[in-house]
């Protein structure tokens, strides 16, 4: 997969430079190419292929208009990188001139005394070229990395303003590819790419100019071969692109098999499907092998064909040169210097073709990033939105709320009305898919009702800033969402800056402190990816501690007992009671076993039973362990 055309051209350039340039000459290479190519190998796969295959390219002008401002503060670094690269190229031009001089004045005349000064100057030039090449590569890489950092920060900050709906409708891998690969390709166009265009064009001018300076007529003849390079490059570029695209597709397919299979290893092993999974990987691996072989074939062919053209040009130069030397119109040093200039000129011309290729790839990446930037959050703060400065009392009211998910035809909620007084517990039940979790999403303003209002302390939540609304509402999700940090970090996530004492106090109330004390590093013990090193009940109690630390007046508990057995659920219920104490709580649950006595209930019914989903009842009392009775009673009391 590393055999894409640009690195290949780079390798060829190095080889040709070594072969034809005078010894000690520094051959300028594109600094970032191989680094980027290597990094890309580790990144997600199918997404890159999809991107290359599917994204329509936007115009380069639009890309620059969008992203050029991000180079502010870095332009001078890119300019310095360009100046260094030009200094390196000029040093090469001068070194070759010295090489010609030494040939004519020292080698041909056998005058050793004339050797030392040009030799010292050559050494100096080699050092200058080396230092300039290093400086250019370093400064350009620094500017490129800073640009990437800035651009990624900007796009990630934007992504985090988008509603959860945006993420639910997209593949995470695709979004990650946009934040990594695609941003890099933009950098390669707008940042280091621009430097590369500038320095490559400058190199072509320098090397061609120097060749013309030595012998303009010879230069004109050999320049006639340049179109051959461009034709070969064009013919191969198309094939390289196809081979690279199929390699990326196979690589993507292989990655997705590995990802899926490793993520579900417990299922694979429990069902004894290891051999099947290995076979799936093998089949994809064979596709990858074929794609790589087709790239290897192209790489193998490309070198010799270019070499033939080089050889033709060398033979023309040597034949014509020998004739001119015999006629006394050209010196041996002049001829060798001329050949050396061509040895650098041809790769530079190749480099221009290569840039054209990477520009089309960058434009495709840029389109995908711009699509993210153009996406607007479904819910935003009104211009006149107010910030709740003091803690809300926790009076929640749904008033005739209708809601249909974007892209869905059937309404999810119809005319839902209920009130939760400060500190009151409301139990929300109903069959799966009835819209219970949707109530929580609306309360957090992840979505906006189509009609009706939701009020917090009598204020329409659309008139509040989202940040201050969410500061007053804590949701405890069905699946306890933990990060891969430590126990302490996961609990303190509820309140940035929470002290260890506050964390411990919350853990005690959540009934998890004793367990944490038995862990090898106590509160500093990592909980593993998504908290997988802990049991379901332990994860849930850590999530309760996090909610306790947060201390918001309104609490939504979305199926807090899901997946827990009777005993564990009973153990979790006690900390939950402590969490609910004094807070307005909407408890969404199917499981009425552990619901506190005296709680009010609401029942949601799905659309196919009635016209849409509607709230059946507010205000019924729920009788412990008698869910069926409660339901009947709720219906009877429907308002
Ligand atoms: N992001 C979404 N986009 C479109 N439809 C959605 C989305 N989220 C949920 N739905 C649909 O809305 C309906 C209500 O979903 P919701 O998750 O609120 O149900 P629920 O009552 O909480 O179900 P459960 O008890 O199974 O968790 C379902 O039919 C579901 O398919």
Automatic annotation (TrEMBL):
<dbReference type="InterPro" id="IPR036640">
    <property type="entry name" value="ABC1_TM_sf"/>
</dbReference>
<feature type="transmembrane region" description="Helical">
    <location>
        <begin position="329"/>
        <end position="349"/>
    </location>
</feature>
<dbReference type="GO" id="GO:0015421">
    <property type="term" value="F:ABC-type oligopeptide transporter activity"/>
</dbReference>
<keyword id="KW-0997">Cell inner membrane</keyword>
<dbReference type="GO" id="GO:0005886">
    <property type="term" value="C:plasma membrane"/>
</dbReference>
<dbReference type="InterPro" id="IPR003439">
    <property type="entry name" value="ABC_transporter-like_ATP-bd"/>
</dbReference>
<feature type="transmembrane region" description="Helical">
    <location>
        <begin position="119"/>
        <end position="144"/>
    </location>
</feature>
<dbReference type="InterPro" id="IPR027417">
    <property type="entry name" value="P-loop_NTPase"/>
</dbReference>
<dbReference type="Pfam" id="PF00005">
    <property type="entry name" value="ABC_tran"/>
</dbReference>
<feature type="domain" description="ABC transmembrane type-1">
    <location>
        <begin position="79"/>
        <end position="361"/>
    </location>
</feature>
<dbReference type="InterPro" id="IPR039421">
    <property type="entry name" value="Type_1_exporter"/>
</dbReference>
<dbReference type="InterPro" id="IPR011527">
    <property type="entry name" value="ABC1_TM_dom"/>
</dbReference>
<feature type="transmembrane region" description="Helical">
    <location>
        <begin position="300"/>
        <end position="323"/>
    </location>
</feature>
<protein>
    <submittedName>
        <fullName>ATP-binding cassette subfamily B protein</fullName>
    </submittedName>
</protein>
<keyword id="KW-0067">ATP-binding</keyword>
<keyword id="KW-0812">Transmembrane</keyword>
<dbReference type="InterPro" id="IPR003593">
    <property type="entry name" value="AAA+_ATPase"/>
</dbReference>
<keyword id="KW-0547">Nucleotide-binding</keyword>
<dbReference type="GO" id="GO:0005524">
    <property type="term" value="F:ATP binding"/>
</dbReference>
<feature type="domain" description="ABC transporter">
    <location>
        <begin position="396"/>
        <end position="631"/>
    </location>
</feature>
<dbReference type="Pfam" id="PF00664">
    <property type="entry name" value="ABC_membrane"/>
</dbReference>
<dbReference type="InterPro" id="IPR017871">
    <property type="entry name" value="ABC_transporter-like_CS"/>
</dbReference>
<comment type="similarity">
    <text>Belongs to the ABC transporter superfamily. Siderophore-Fe(3+) uptake transporter (SIUT) (TC 3.A.1.21) family.</text>
</comment>
<keyword id="KW-1133">Transmembrane helix</keyword>
<dbReference type="GO" id="GO:0016887">
    <property type="term" value="F:ATP hydrolysis activity"/>
</dbReference>
<keyword id="KW-0472">Membrane</keyword>
<keyword id="KW-0813">Transport</keyword>
<feature type="transmembrane region" description="Helical">
    <location>
        <begin position="218"/>
        <end position="237"/>
    </location>
</feature>
<feature type="transmembrane region" description="Helical">
    <location>
        <begin position="76"/>
        <end position="99"/>
    </location>
</feature>
<feature type="transmembrane region" description="Helical">
    <location>
        <begin position="193"/>
        <end position="212"/>
    </location>
</feature>
<keyword id="KW-1003">Cell membrane</keyword>
């Amino acid at each position: 997969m590393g055999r894409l055309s640009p690195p290949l051209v780079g390798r060829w350039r190095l080889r040709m430079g070594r072969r034809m340039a005078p010894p000690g000459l520094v051959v300028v290479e594109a600094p970032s190419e191989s680094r980027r190519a290597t990094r890309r190998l580790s990144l997600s796969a199918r997404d890159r292929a999809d991107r290359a295959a599917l994204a329509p390219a936007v115009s380069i002008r639009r890309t620059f208009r969008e992203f050029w401002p991000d180079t502010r503060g870095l332009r001078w670094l890119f300019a310095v990188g360009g100046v260094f690269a030009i200094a390196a190229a000029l040093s090469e031009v001068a070194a070759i001139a010295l090489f010609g001089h030494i040939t004519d004045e020292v080698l041909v005349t056998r005058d050793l005394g004339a050797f030392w000064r040009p030799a010292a100057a050559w050494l100096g030039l080699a050092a200058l070229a080396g230092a300039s090449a290093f400086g250019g590569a370093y400064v350009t890489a620094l500017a490129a990395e800073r640009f990437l950092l800035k651009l990624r920060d900007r796009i990630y900050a934007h992504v985090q303003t988008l509603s959860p709906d945006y993420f639910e409708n997209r593949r995470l891998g695709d979004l990650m590819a946009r934040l990594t690969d695609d941003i890099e390709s933009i950098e390669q166009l707008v940042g280091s790419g621009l430097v590369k265009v500038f320095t490559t064009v400058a190199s072509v001018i320098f090397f061609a100019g120097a060749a013309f300076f030595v012998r303009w007529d010879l230069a004109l003849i050999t320049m006639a071969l340049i179109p051959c390079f461009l034709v070969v490059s064009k013919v191969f570029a198309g094939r390289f692109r196809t081979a690279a695209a199929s390699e990326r597709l196979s690589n993507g397919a292989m990655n997705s098999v590995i990802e899926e299979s490793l993520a579900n290893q417990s299922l694979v092993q429990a069902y004894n499907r290891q051999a099947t999974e290995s076979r799936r990987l093998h089949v994809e691996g064979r596709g990858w092998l074929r794609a790589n072989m087709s790239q290897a074939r192209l790489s193998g062919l490309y070198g010799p064909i270019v070499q033939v053209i080089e050889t033709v040009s060398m033979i023309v130069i040597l034949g014509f040169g020998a004739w001119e030397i015999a006629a006394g119109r050209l010196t041996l040093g002049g001829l060798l210097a001329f050949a050396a200039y061509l040895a650098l000129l041809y790769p530079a011309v190749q480099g221009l073709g290569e840039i054209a290729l990477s520009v089309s790839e960058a434009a495709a990446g840029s389109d995908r990033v711009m699509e993210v930037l153009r996406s607007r959050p479904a819910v935003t703060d009104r211009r006149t939105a107010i910030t709740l400065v003091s803690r809300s009392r926790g009076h929640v009211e749904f008033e005739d709320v209708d809601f249909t998910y974007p892209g869905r035809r059937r309404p999810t909620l119809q005319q839902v009305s209920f009130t939760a007084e400060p500190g009151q517990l409301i139990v929300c039940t109903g069959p799966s898919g009835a819209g219970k979790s949707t109530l929580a999403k609306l309360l957090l303003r992840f979505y906006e009702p189509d009609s009706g209002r939701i009020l917090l302390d009598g204020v329409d939540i659309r008139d509040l800033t989202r940040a201050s609304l969410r500061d007053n509402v804590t949701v405890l999700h069905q699946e306890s969402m933990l990060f891969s940090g430590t126990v302490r970090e996961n609990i303190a996530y509820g309140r940035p800056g929470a002290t260890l004492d506050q964390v411990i106090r919350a853990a005690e109330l959540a009934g998890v402190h004793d367990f944490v004390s038995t862990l090898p590093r106590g509160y500093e013990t990592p909980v593993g990816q998504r908290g997988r090193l802990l049991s379901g009940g332990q994860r849930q109690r850590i999530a309760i501690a996090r909610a306790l630390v947060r201390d918001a007046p309104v609490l939504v508990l979305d199926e807090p007992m899901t997946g827990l057995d009777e005993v564990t659920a009973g153990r979790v219920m006690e900390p939950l009671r402590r969490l609910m104490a004094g807070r307005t709580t909407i408890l969404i649950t199917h499981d009425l076993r552990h619901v506190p006595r005296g709680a009010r209930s609401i029942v949601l019914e799905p659309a196919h039973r009635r016209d849409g989903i509607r709230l059946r009842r507010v205000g019924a009392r729920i009788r412990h362990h008698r869910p069926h009775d409660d339901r009947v009673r709720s219906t009877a009391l429907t308002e």
